Amino acid sequence: MDIREKTQIALALLFPAAPVTEGPVVAEGADQGTPPPREPGVVIQDFPRCGSHLDILCRPDQVVAVAQIMDTEGFFLESIAGVDWLEKQQLEVLYDYNRLGGEHCRVMVRTLVPRTEPVVPTISGVFPAANWHERETFDFYGVHFQNHPNLIRILLPEDADFHPLLKDFMP
Amino acid sequence: METSIWRALFYLVGIMAFAGLNAAYLGWCERKGAARIQRRIGPCEAGFAGLLQPLADGLKLMSKQLLVPQGVDGIIFRVAPVLAMIPAITSMVVIPFSGNIEARAMELSVLLLFALASLGMMAILLGGWASGNKYAIISSARAVSQNLAYEIPMLVTVITIVMISGSMNLREIALNQMGGFWHWNIFRLENGHFLTMWISFIIFFICSVAETNRAPFDMAEAESELVAGFMTEYGSMGFGLFMMGEYLNIVVGACLTTTLFLGGWDCPFGKTPGVWWFLIKIYMLIFTFIWIRWTYPRTQIYRLLNLSWKILIPFSLANLLITAALIKVF
Amino acid sequence: MTVPISLRHDETFVLNLGPQHPATHGVLRVILTLDGEYVVKAEPVLGYVHRMHEKLAEGGTFAQFMPNTARMDYLHALAFNHGWALVVEKAAGIEVPERAEYIRVITVELNRIASHLLWWAAFLLDLGGFTPLLYAFDDREKIIDLLERVTGSRLTYCYMRFGGVYNDIDDEFITGTRAFIKRLRSRMPRFYHDLVTHNIILIKRIKDIGIITPEQCRRYGATGPVARGSGISYDIRKNEPYSVYPEFDFDVPVFDECDSMARYMVRMHEMEQSLRIIEQALDKLPDGPVMGKAPKVLKPEAGYYYSAVETARGSLGYRLICDGGKNPYKLKLRSPTFSNLSLFGEVAEGMLLADALAFMGSLDLVIPEIDR
Fold it and tell me: What's the pTM value of the predicted model, to 2 decimals?
């Protein structure tokens, strides 16, 4: 059983209700600017097409559990990105996991939070790399990471009061 | 004639001129030497082969504003660069350039030179402290611990020379080495001293490189870590004076090495001693200083101090004992 | 040399390795809390060169972002170009002709050598050896001249297009590159290894300094020579091959000592391996077009795409989210040096100031890449 299957099985335990499906991460007929409507669960992706092996959509409170599973399986946190879905009034936080050496497997973990109150628990306790990445996501999108040791701005000036990567940001 | 006012004036002007020309043109030598080692040309625009470059640099430095930052200790800040120059120039009073050319032959000239060297070290400490800049203070602390550590083996090796020559007068020491290559202190053939003298020479040379704060021992002005070290807050002629003081220290170090180990103004073949041989020797030593600087990276402070305390001092002390034993036996 | 520190608050002082400093390779500020010369706490402060490239990407089309990619890591700009071209070609399904792939590899590897040469020069400058800078720049000038013939730029290349490269290479480039390979191979043992790598002062200065354990690498996401110097054999060109890298026979240097010396040796050997790749690519260079078919207005299918390339500093990732329009909806750049620098705070604790700077030099930082 290769690492992708192992990880997929370990992660699927978090989503007992949803079956593991395959396919790209875009539903037919998706409008421009809206994320594909989907239930939390695990989707196997076509690596050469999309660049990742697994796509996990989870609830915000499951983020730490997912990070812990990834840590146990030996992944490392490659980056954390934010996405602003303005029309659906949701912010998405996207975690990219990868493996250093050995078998290759890229996992994308996504979570959606409402735009007006974007709160996600921090995973910097599991991966110290998340410390700076979460600061960056907070800096650009205003996503608040609970229990982060030092959630201050990292790239913008400390006294800035705007979040520039939001779609309705007017300079 | 010995005490004539004209003699004093002549030497005053002569030493100031020698010091000034050296301080200015050693900078040119260093830049050209560095350039050739780095496969480029160096100053070549100002005058023929860049010979007017030091003049241009001096004019530039003099025309800059003498900035005194707020919060520095006013008097010490202004005095420190001057204090860096004074020992270097004063040391030239006792150096025997040749049989006839020496400003004042003193019985304890070796002692005088080392006392003045310590004054120069104090100038670095004062300059760094008075700047009120953390980088400068770190650099001064490093410079003091380094200079202190390296003065000791230097003095111990000089004691061996003094024991062999029987005098602390630099002129006597040089006269003792007359007669050609094999009489020089570095190769002293008689009494078996040749076993130990070259070790003394190497230790003394390493210590001079460290005492003058030259790479690979230039922790005090480590450019890439401490910006400019104790000279960070100095601009214009303050900086100029520190740099000139550094070059003059190199000249004095080379003069001392030549007088103590390489026979002063003696010709290697024993034929025609004279001031030219002295000058050739010191400039060859200075060239070696420059060569070493541009070849090696910097050491770390604890390795630097280890080198002195754990290696050079035991070796120089052992050297002293062996020399004393040889003198006693033979 | 590290020493455990536990001190009262008033025995330490704060030194700002400020934005303007000869050794920080760009505008990086590190707030160091020092006890004498020992580092008690090191906190990098970023953002002095932040230009918000991710917003610029959303504001223009895919092609308009290509010049921006070079401005981030200007030392290995062609790899950043390559990564962007790869991710958009993945999203839009554009095919790249073989000759273009080979040319891409040759130019990227030449750029990698240039980047490592500059790192070597700057690293030694930090340590106080001024001369190697000039020797490295001599070789680097040859590479830059070669690449200027073909790409038109000396530093910030915008050479790749979606579907290939925009300019073909000519015979003079090929002969020039072969001559360069020969020249560098002959100079490496004398100028680089005899004078510098085997220099006792350098060895004492970087051996056993800045130990980064493999576990620390994983937890902080360090990749590239930083990870390979800690025994982790991860190189995207081998583990996740892209372009025509599977066709070449090259090694990935991995050293186990985890110190700055290991990272130094990794980069020196990588230069030799890049020379091998370029040689093989020149031998196998096929004929053909250098530009594939790409639509004038690019509107890739909506979805989430990721593509990673191996730059001189580590694994660069482009996370692209398209919504079917002609602008990217979201672009996230995963900068390798950002992750490499994040472990500086933890590893530099207890080090001497001079050692901390040597360690920072061995991480190979390019600040515009961190700040984007």
Answer: 0.87
